[in-house]
């Protein structure tokens, strides 16, 4: 299988090339991952770390994007980490999670795939393994953290057990189920109007004002050491030689902890990070040799959707891990088939990476371990997963056929598709302007060649057909759109990434209307970080630059496609 492995940019695709970054000016105010700078009379935001384009990395599923570890044992601090992990007091709140064989998948792959079931923890994720050593005085003053997810629940439970007051700052968009469960665990929830960055800045400020200990989600030696206990358990639980341990990577605390233990006691075991293709901050940072901020992140696997990895976690990963593979969305279904358990997308990521890696390298008769890191999922997310499952697992194909609208054409179309093809969904729209009709349809299919033959057959019958199955845009939106192309002039189709802030939709409509006609909107929330929004706008060609200015001022990431 050919490996496509490029870091593409407009000017270069070399693996070793480094982009030019804008010169920095004096930083005056720091707020999480951005810095405010003054330039003459204006103040604006720049990032203190270079920004990398999320979409500049492409590689085959399962290909190990290598890291070349320097040091091999965590450097000077490696021994200290080992001691801290061995002495970490996480078992006040966490259990030793089971290591289970995924027997069906193991049989299919010819590899023993072991699952380290961190989704079995009391808060349904590993996030309660944070080995904080707080003095009596610190416990009395209390702790504070900001999180919309698993970290919040871990801190709430651990604090409750230690009899310590915990404030958990969460974005107001956090699903009720999540913040209520934090409250049930004893946390005092503060809902902030704006997104994660503001919540974090607020939590840090309150920590300073009230003398509380701020508990960061990943970038702290105690957090890393606590999570290293997972490595310690795996090493004890699996006596046979381990080829690799696959670990989901967000900010890098989990993998840094596991690597800090394993590379000390069993350096031959590969430690492989798994990141989603659309949230790959660790692999990009390893590539450039320093931390970078991603220009955007996808939020399907919201537990790992971070724009920038931690400083300490990156230092450890650079020294210890063997590389990163990119995972896909399919492993949630594998896990369901295997154990009848549903993981959250981030929780299934390592399994996806392990499976893809075994297939890519044709691994046989080895032991690999995947950390199933969490199972906190709500019904919205479940709905989305079930919808994506069939398309993602290539059990159905999405096709579009464009045909001349004339008597009998729909019948001709149906005949070409054939009587045995099972339609799952069918959308037909007549475009009166050029007398063409668009049919958008989903069909169940078994093999790739079957599908290719169908597309070919349609094309030779002058029914221009395209296979849209692998297009995420289609997976995310087409199911919910009625009709196809409309009879409008100058219609642009744009895909915006909204932050999950109340009012984003209104702000967008306000930005363009009434200057231009908004002809289509499809918004679907896809997690607590943001949403993909498809917007159709009628913009005459000579107004396109003005439109671009307007879209840029709006401040949301977008791509635009002229569909005419
Ligand atoms: C379920 C789940 N898996 C993996 C991760 C990634 O952990 P880290 O940020 O330490 O890399 C997280 C982080 O919160 C998570 O919630």
Apparent shape: globular
Main beta sheet strand tally, sense and closure: 7 strands, mixed
Computed structural class: alpha/beta
Distance between the termini: 37 Å
State the total count of DSSP E strands: 26
Compounds present? pyridoxal-5'-phosphate
Oligomeric assembly: single chain
What is the tally of helical segments?
18
From the alpha-carbon coordinates, what is the Rg to the nearest angstrom? 25 Å
In helices, the fraction of residues equals 25-40%
**Percent of residues in beta strands:** 15-25%
Q: Numbering strands along the chain, what is their spatial order in the largest sheet?
A: 7-17-15-14-18-9-8
What's the helix and strand layout?
Blueprint: E1 6-7, E2 27-31, E3 34-39, E4 42-46, E5 51-52, E6 57-58, E7 65-66, H1 78-86, E8 99-101, H2 103-109, E9 112-117, H3 136-141, E10 143-146, H4 150-162, E11 166-171, H5 176-184, E12 188-192, H6 196-210, E13 213-214, H7 221-237, E14 244-248, H8 253-265, E15 270-276, H9 281-288, E16 293-294, H10 311-320, E17 323-327, H11 331-339, H12 345-361, E18 367-372, H13 379-392, E19 396-404, H14 409-417, E20 422-431, E21 436-444, H15 448-460, E22 464-467, H16 472-477, E23 491-499, H17 504-512, E24 517-525, E25 530-538, H18 544-554, E26 557-562
Parallel strand pairs: 5-16, 9-18, 10-11, 10-13, 11-12, 14-15, 14-18, 15-17
Antiparallel strand pairs: 1-6, 2-3, 3-4, 7-17, 8-9, 19-21, 19-22, 20-21, 23-25, 23-26, 24-25
Helix pairs in contact: 1-7, 1-8, 4-5, 7-8, 8-10, 17-18
